[in-house]
Amino acid sequence: MSPTASTKDFRVAIIGGGMCGLACAVGLAKRGIASDVFEAAPKFDEVGAGVGIGPNALRALKGIGVLDAVLARLDRDDRTARRMLYLSGTGAHEEVYDYNNSSEFTDADTGLGMYRPAFLDALLPLMDPKTAHFNKRCTSIETLDTGDYRLHFADGTTHDAGLVIGADGIKSTSRNAVVGERKVLQFTNTVAYRGLVPRDTLLQDGLKSDLSQRVHNFVGIDKHIIVFPIQSGKIINIVAFSTDNSVPPGSVAVAGPWVQSVPQQELLDTYAGWGPDAQLLLKYMKTPSKWFIHTLTPLDTFVCGRIALVGDAAHGMTPHLGSGVGQGFEDVFVLCQLLGHPTTTKANLEEVLKAYDTIRQPRANMVLRESFRAGVIYESYGKLGYGLGEMGGHLARIWEPIWRHDLDGDVAAAIESLKER
Fold first, then answer.
1. What gap in Å lies between CA 3 and CA 360, rounded to an integer?
2. Shortest CA distance to 220 belongs to which of 321, 89, 91?
3. pLDDT for the residue 1
4. Which residue has the higher pLDDT, 1 or 415?
5. Which residues are paired to 165 by β-bridges?
6. Are residues 149 and 33 in the same domain?
7. CATH number (domain holding residue 237)
């Protein structure tokens, strides 16, 4: 595979062409670093529907150098402060807690909701198409005598690179080269039913809740429904969660695909007895997809030698704080800044990746743990200690450590740590 010019004495292989993999490829290219992206599918594609991108993730995208391209694909209405309104899932949907505190929110707290394929459409024009390689499912990574790596693919081909970035998602193969093949994935006992519904359809059928601007979370015992607008409020993204708390997380293995099409009746039966707006949302999810939510047990490290993990490959988490992809973007920003630093060469790549790991592993794993805790809080509404007047104590400032984080300070700390190595 023909290399393109690079300002560095190493070339990067990126395994996985999802949101984080493409952001990484573009970010490296903007810093004069050549890379190749190896995608298992026949084309770049994103599984899923809408995705929420918090203010910290937007700052990471700006630092990577792709935010303007992303915003160009959106209307201004898609950028809203991520101020979640919690409502009871049952009864008349009384307000449980308003994560608003308008006096504490600023323009810096603005996030957005967008359609995942729109993100890829924004980034693809920024890529050199010759660096994209499809139908390349990585099966293993071999360390060569030179210290470089040889990627082996399911089609029998190979590719050599001086640095490997694993962006191949929660079922990552590249992760095996970092932490071995020990069991790190676990089923959380939570499933999520996903769907998209036109807002006008809901309004015409009597929807009372105003879903045009804010993120809404309908909460109840062992269940919650996250709803937010995309495409300028024309489409409502719905994710309905249900958890089996009769057994501990990780004790049940999922047989079959992690994403399945299911009859709508299964969804309706799961939320029988919920309130009118919740029922209305589910009524128009005619062909829901059912996702079996898995997470990683926190990894001790995201790197090994000159292999680094980003995104779900490093810290696949529950979506309950809407921060999984944002943490991936933070990974990519820090990594791009370190790799693009003038002092970074092939000779010190291992030290550079250790600096990346020192910064990113603790923070991303903190968000992983807090995301799981958030889901427990949402689905405890109605239990002892989680009543109508008590939820605020559990939910107040739950996002602030995630949103209000100094990414530039992270990079500065990582660079400073290199001087001490």
1. 30
2. 89
3. 37
4. 415
5. 14, 308
6. yes
7. 3.30.9.30
Q: Is residue 6 part of a domain?
A: no
Whole-Å CA distances, 163 to 33, 333, 418: 11, 17, 18
C-alpha distances (whole Å) from 145 to each of 2, 310, 349 are 22, 25, 17
Residue whose token pair is 């059912």: 290
Asked whether 319 and 224 are in contact (CB, 8 A), the reply is no
**Residue that has been written with the tokens 């949402």 in this structure:** 378
Whether 414 and 334 have beta carbons less than 8 Å apart is answered as yes
Contact 59, 111 (CB under 8 A): no
pLDDT of residue 102: 47
CA atoms within 13 A on the CB side of 377: 21
Provide the 10 A C-beta neighbour count for residue 287. 9
Enclosing domain of residue 196:
185-295
The answer to whether the CB of 331 falls within 8 A of the CB of 311 is: yes
- Say whether both 46 and 150 belong to one domain: yes
CA 196, distance to chain mean position in Å, is 19
CATH code of the domain covering residue 389 = 3.50.50.60
With vertex at residue 20, the alpha carbon angle to CA 254 and CA 227, rounded to the nearest 5 degrees, is 65
- Distance separating alpha carbons of residues 370 and 323, to the nearest angstrom: 10
**Residues 200, 165 share a domain:** no
d(CA 314, CA 202): 38
Tell me: do 230 and 287 sit in the same domain.
yes
E-state strands within 75-118? 79-81, 85-88, 95-98, 110-115
Residue entry with tokens 């630093």: 341
Residue 331: inside a domain, yes or no? yes
Pair (55, 142) in one structural domain: yes
d(CA 27, CA 331): 12
Give how many domains the chain has, as a whole number. 2
Q: Which two tokens stand for residue 76?
A: 């201004």
Beta bridge partners of 296: 185
Q: Are residues 137 and 267 in the same domain?
A: no
Beta carbons of 10 and 28 less than 8 angstroms apart = no
pLDDT tens-digit series, residues 73-111: 876 555 655 578 999 999 999 999 998 754 455 556 677
The answer for residues whose C-beta is within 8 angstroms of residue 1's C-beta and 6 or more apart is 36, 133, 159
Residues 368 and 398 in one domain: yes
pTM as predicted:
0.93
Rg (CA), the chain: 22
User: Is residue 207 domain-resident?
Assistant: yes
Domain boundary among 247, 277, 295: 295
Is 342 part of any domain? yes
